[in-house]
Amino acid sequence: MDTLDLPRHDLRSTALEVLRARGYIHQCTDLGGLDAAFAAGVVPVYIGFDATADSLHVGHLLPIMTLRRLQRAGHKPIVLMGGGTTRVGDPSFRATERPLLSDDQIAANIRGIRRVFERFLTFGNGPIDAVMVNNADWLDRLGYIDLLRDVGRHFSVNRMLSFDSVKARLDRQDPMTFLEFNYMILQAFDFLELHRRAGCLAQMGGSDQWGNIVNGIDLVRRIEGREVFGLTTPLLTTASGAKMGKTAGGAVWLNADRLSPYDYWQFWRNADDADVGRFLRLFTDLPLDRIAELEALPGAAINQAKVALADAATTLAHGTDAAQAARDTAGQAFAGAVADGLPDVALTAAEVRDGGALVVDLLVRAGLATSKGEARRLILGGGVRTDGRVVADTDARITQAAVPIRLSLGRKRHVRVCGV
């Protein structure tokens, strides 16, 4: 079901009404049936996350916030960690096979990801408390012949080849291994197992997971004879068309040891004007009427809405104190001070010995530019400053005697250059 069909439904459940009003719904296998289930009582809902890194990033934030909304509406979030499926790698819309990780790497990544969810969800033993489970608990015990006989017979290869995620890979003539091709069977089995173990009635995920979700629904119906549901969130891009969560410096991580709260705050503060209202609805808990006021601010006043977005989003991810500190640091940097809270980029001993570091190198090291070529173009365009003074020379250096000094790209992105 496409979102264009949604206005024809008179929703009864708070959960789906909130998801619809804030822009979370892209497709649903049976909106009326899911709405009735939500209205009838507590519904266990799961979203799966593979443990490919020790933190999630802003690209994962939409499903995380979906679980947060559902818990606040009185339902039970199940966070499924792919301890088993991470060994395979989801091939959906990927051009190449994902590198395989060791069991120790996967376990360490799950510990890091757990810290993310503890800030967005309430865990415990209550009826709507979130739980985190690991599909290695059941996938590791699967016998290959048993899987083929009990699960594999319910899957049509013709249908599996018809899913967009697979077709896109094959149309580009990018190879897909047999290991990757089995991923959708394992994900479908996850839904079956969670339905059996926890009474899970719905799987949610990004729009790229639609085929995998439908497979799981079919498997539960064929084996258990029960109706379960699937819902996807929209593919999220910025107003400029860029993939959400990617910057010149790389992924916008949700753990502070991967990305400082200041840099996280700045990511939201630098949102495009056209994205502010949508991001406020999706990524903050601010009431809709307050969001309507903020996105209606005229002209330069929209910056107030961006600060509100940055404050609210950073508070969710890092806490009130971190958000306030990031905002204070940003204010000091804007006023021209070398603020203590700015991210540091240090001169190396070799650079000190050789008379300083090239600004070009520091821009790349700080994540303000993706390459030396881009850094030179930024300098030639007049966008780079040290302590408010324009850097005009692409061979300019910062010496040990000059630090600490504020290195800026434009008016909003700053780092503190310090000594060895």
Briefly, what is this?
The chain has 420 residues and is α/β, with parallel strands linked by helices. Helix content is 45%, strand content 13%. Strands 1-6-5-2-3-4 form a six-stranded mixed sheet, sandwiched between helices. It has a five-stranded mixed sheet with strand order 9-15-14-11-12, with helices on one face. A two-stranded antiparallel sheet has the order 7-8.
Question: Could you explain how this protein is built, in words?
Answer:
The protein has 420 residues and is α/β, with parallel strands linked by helices. It has 3 domains: 3-233, HUPs (Rossmann fold, 3-Layer(aba) Sandwich); 260-335, Tyrosyl-Transfer RNA Synthetase, CATH 1.10.240.10; 344-418, Roll (Structural Genomics Hypothetical 15.5 Kd Protein In mrcA-pckA Intergenic Region, Chain A). Helices cover 45% and strands 13% of the residues. It has helices spanning 14-22, 31-40, 61-72, 103-120, 136-139, 144-150, 157-162, 164-171, 178-181, 183-198, 210-224, 261-269, 276-283, 288-295, 302-318, 320-335, 349-353, 359-365, 372-380, and strands spanning 27-28, 44-49, 76-81, 131-134, 202-206, 229-233, 246-247, 250-251, 344-346, 357-358, 384-386, 389-390, 397-398, 405-409, 413-418. The strands form 4 sheets. A 6-stranded mixed beta sheet has the order 1-6-5-2-3-4, sandwiched between helices. A hairpin with a 2-residue loop joins strand 7 and strand 8. The longest helix has 18 residues, at 103-120. 40% of the residues are buried. The model has no long low-confidence stretch (mean pLDDT 86).
